[in-house]
Amino acid sequence: MKKSLIVLAIMAMLSIPCFAQFSSSSYRSTCPTSISYSTNSSARYQQGYFRSNGTYVRGHYKTRINGTNHDNYSTRGNRNSFTGSRGSRARDYSVGAYNYGRGMSIRTGSRGGQYYINSRGNKTYVPKRH
User: Fold this and answer.
1) Is pTM beyond 0.70 here?
2) What are phi and psi of 124, to 5 degrees?
3) Do residues 127 and 91 touch, judged by C-beta distance below 8 A?
4) Looking at residue 71, what DSSP letter applies?
5) 4-24 pLDDT, tens per residue?
6) DSSP state, 16?
7) What are the φ/ψ torsions at residue 70 (nearest 5 degrees)?
8) Which of 81, 106, 82, 78 minimizes the C-alpha distance to 90?
9) SS3 of residue 87 by DSSP
10) Is 93 left (phi over 0), alpha (psi -120 to 50) or beta?
11) Distance of CA 79 to CAs 53, 69, 129, Å?
12) Residue 5 φ/ψ, nearest 5 degrees
């Protein structure tokens, strides 16, 4: 009886949604720290920056580079524990990866990333294909 109550309590805790609060100088999460969403546990903060076209990108948390997108926040099936958002990009080497850049010549960079040149002449990275 005690074991079943403990299991139910743990299941209830795991179903609690995550919320994150941001302000200009701080971040606070109400997510339980013991929950894993199969993402890279080694996250870092990316400072805000300006793109070459003048667009400002706000600071955000991202997973550290490890050569695959299977554990990134943006990958389908994963969840960003800082914002609660779910990923939508196809996993590397999945069937869905072939939909990105359809009809374009896919190139491989010196560090293994795959991309195509878009209509503006810029590299657009895609999930890796075989």
Assistant:
1) no
2) -120, 110
3) yes
4) T
5) 545 445 544 444 444 444 333
6) S
7) -60, -25
8) 78
9) strand
10) left
11) 30, 13, 23
12) -70, -40
Q: What is the DSSP string of 19-77?
A: -EEE-SS-EEE-S-TT---SS-S-EEEEPPEE-TTS-EE--EEEEPP-S-STTSTTBBT
The residues facing 101 across adjacent strands are none
Which amino acid appears at position 104 of this protein?
M
68 burial (CB, 10 Å; 0-12 / 13-18 / 19+) is: middle
Residue 1 CA, distance from chain mean position: 40
Give the CA dihedral 68, 70, 76, 81, nearest 10 degrees: -110
Give pLDDT tens digits for 37-67. 456 667 888 999 999 999 999 998 887 777 7
What distance in Å separates the CA atoms of residue 102 and residue 17, rounded to the nearest whole number? 36
Which residue in the block uniquely carries the two structure tokens 């960003």? 80
The radius of gyration of the chain from alpha carbons, rounded to an integer in Å, stands at 19
Give the residue carrying structure tokens 């550290």.
64
* Distance of alpha carbon 44 from alpha carbon 40, whole angstroms: 10
Q: Which residues of 35-47 are buried (b: 16+ CB within 10 A; e: fewer)?
A: eebebbeeeeeee
